[in-house]
Amino acid sequence: MTRERLSLDCLETFLALIESGSFSAAGERRGLAQSTVSQHLRRMEDVLGASLILRGQRGCQPTETAQRLTPHFRGMLRLEERIVNGVDAPSISLGASSNIGVYILPALMRQFRDQIGDMPDVRIASNPELFDLLDRTDIDVALLEWWDHRPGFRCQPWRTETMVVIVNPAHSLADARSLSRQEFASLSLIGGEPGTGTGRLLATYFEGETSPTPVMSLGSTEAVKRAVEAGLGASIVLSSTVQEEARQGRLRAIPLQGGPLQKILYLVWRNDVSENAPLVTFLARQAAAEHRAGTAS
Predict the structure, then answer these.
(1) DSSP string, 222-253
(2) Can you name the CATH fold of 93-159+264-296?
(3) pLDDT tens digits, 97-144
């Protein structure tokens, strides 16, 4: 027996209901009678087999189940809009982790625009947020600082970035040409906490040995750089994110001894996105060009 499926009209009505907080306001927003709003809600609850709305003195509030499902409901409506808009002008949306989006992507997007004559929609977010956006089909392609190889996607290494330790120019190690593992481990580190991409990299680098003590988590490389500049500690960042500050003498960027510590950045796209799509092809060419440059050097 074919089960009843969710209706996009009902989804829109449900979202209007939780955003407005009342059946009458939702009906006004959607141009529907209040009884129709109630019918749409009942249909959704019947299909899902779960209650979605709590009625109380504060109006209509979503249940825990509804709160968990609401991002998916919004994603379904955005996907429908993208499908309709894509009939005449198919487009692919790109997500980039914060460091890539801020420090690497702008120049690449200028090249893409000049070569292709178009610009993709771009979302900049944290790595975990981009995972969710990929799963919800809100984005098609992503440039990530780490990848968990979940099913439904294709992935390839995109480029390799060298990590450098940054300190304030007045720091006792500011004049060092490079840092030993022991010197690095002695630092009070801003960022690099367990669970982040840099935290994973450091766990592999130190392999169970004594590692730097994270003293502060700030959430963005810009905030980290300002904290290091203020003398609140040291950090380790992608070399491409600190070139301007190092050139101006506001920060010291110091490599590690024994060869550079490197982070692999990844190009990921959904299985239903063609590898011949212009954006995927362009970004893959960038990866191939960097590989050739690395081999030549």
Answers:
(1) HHHHHHHHTTS-BEEEEGGGSHHHHHHTSSEE
(2) D-Maltodextrin-Binding Protein; domain 2 (3.40.190)
(3) 999 999 999 999 999 999 988 888 899 998 999 998 898 888 999 999
